[in-house]
Hints:
The protein is α/β, with parallel strands linked by helices and about 300 residues long. It is about 35% helix and about 15% strand. The strands form two sheets. It has an eight-stranded parallel beta barrel with strand order 3-4-5-6-7-8-9-10, surrounded by six helices. Strands 1-2 form a two-stranded antiparallel ribbon. Strand 5, helix 5 and strand 6 form a beta-alpha-beta unit. Helix 3 runs parallel beside helix 4, helix 6 runs parallel beside helix 7 and helix 10 runs parallel beside helix 11. Phosphoenolpyruvate (PEP) binds next to loops.
Amino acid sequence: MKIANKFPGKDISLEDIKTKFPLAAKKNKNHKSKFSISGVEFGGNNIPVFAGPNMVESEKLIINCAKNVKKHGADFLRGGAFKPLTFPYRSEKYTETRLEGLKWLKQAKLETKIPVITEIMEEKYLDKICEVADILQIGSRNMQNYPLITECAKTQKPLMIKRHYGASLRDWLGAAEYALVEGNKKIILCERGVSTPHTHRSTSRFMLDIQVIPAAQEITHLPIVSDPSHATFWRPWVSSMALASVAAGADGIMLEVHPDPKNSAVDPLQPIDFNEFGKLMKKMNSVAKSASNRKILK
Ligand code: PEP
Ligand code: MN
């Protein structure tokens, strides 16, 4: 397998490709997974966009988001009912039973017919989440929760595995292999920023690893999505990093979009509003066309 020999880093060896993640690895240079989820094509000429608030705060908010992101051309509504909050103190908008949040998400999907991606943190909610989700999201914090990945993969629901902010490409592909070995072929990977000592401002927690997009695509056939919202943690940088991700060849984009970003219940520094999202969709479409003759908008 020549790709491994050519790979300049020392992280992934030919041996790894053969023995550690044979299912996630490309079989030849042009090998790329193509599949459809709820009518949306992955791995082809279309670059799907997942957009919505960080958290499903209320029924009203999530329905509003669903309508507006769909209007601007998003393919999936994102939003966490269950949230891996870094600190245990919760906003008032975090209802104690997050099953409530799932119901609101279901209602938004019913009213707008937009497919949904939402995070799963605990296996005990798997059945309930599967009733609503078109894609199960494994958050960065659970990237190496192999029992959770295995149980999710067994349902054969599409799975998106976010890269842990300290994980190498090798570790990330190992997580994908856990899902693939269960016979689930609809596996998506998502880069969402890595920890780095090089912070550019006091609140910058992560750095978008744009280079991991082409690096991962050299090794794996799975679609690689980029999430500049969690990576930058800073609204003014989100649009440019989304455009850069499209230019770098990302196979999908995840964005946090909120009607009133400053009052988002979680991470209010990072969501963009509907207006900026609409403009960004058009710009991403132009970049996709000129960079790789792909499209974001129909
Ligand atoms: C999210 O997408 O809502 C999220 C919590 O992301 P991450 O796991 O990348 O922090
Ligand atoms: Mn699209």
